[in-house]
Structure to design on (121 residues):
C-alpha cells in the first residue's frame, strides 16, 4: 500500500520578470509536461502572488524517486536552466533547490481521525 506525499514549496520570482514568468507557463513545453508526469508527480500546481511569491504543490507516491527522475532528465535540465534566472537567491536548479514547506494542517486527515475515534466508541 503506497502513501501519497503532498509536497508544497516556495520560491521568489524577480518582480521585474513576473509577466515573462507567467508567459513561460502558458503553455509549458509538452515534453516537460510529459517528464513531470513520468516522474510520478501529479496534481501539480503553481500559484504566483503579485509580489512574486511562488507557491508550488504536487502529490507523489515517492518524492525521492520523482526528484531523482527529474534530476536525470535532459528535458528538465534544459527547462530549469532557462527558468533559473527568474528566481531570487536561488542556487542550483529550481526543481531541486526549493525547500519544501511543512504541512501543519490537513482537513481530510483531521476529519478521518475524528471518524476513526467516533467509530471506535
Amino acid at each position: 500500500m503506497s502513501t501519497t506525499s503532498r509536497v508544497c514549496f516556495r520560491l521568489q520570482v524577480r518582480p521585474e520578470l513576473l509577466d515573462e514568468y507567467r508567459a513561460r507557463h502558458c503553455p509549458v513545453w509538452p515534453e516537460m509536461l510529459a517528464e513531470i508526469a513520468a516522474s510520478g508527480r501529479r496534481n501539480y500546481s503553481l500559484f504566483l502572488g503579485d509580489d512574486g511569491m511562488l507557491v508550488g504543490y504536487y502529490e507523489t507516491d515517492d518524492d525521492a524517486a520523482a526528484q531523482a527522475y527529474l534530476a536525470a532528465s535532459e528535458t528538465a535540465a534544459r527547462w530549469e536552466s532557462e527558468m533559473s534566472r527568474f528566481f531570487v537567491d536561488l542556487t542550483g536548479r529550481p526543481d531541486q533547490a526549493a525547500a519544501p514547506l511543512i504541512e501543519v494542517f490537513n482537513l481530510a486527515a483531521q476529519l478521518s481521525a475524528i471518524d476513526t475515534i467516533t467509530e471506535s466508541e
Remarks:
- Strands lie at 5-12, 42-48, 53-60, 100-101.
- The chain has one domain: 5-120.
- Residues 28 and 79 are 9 Å apart (CA to CA).
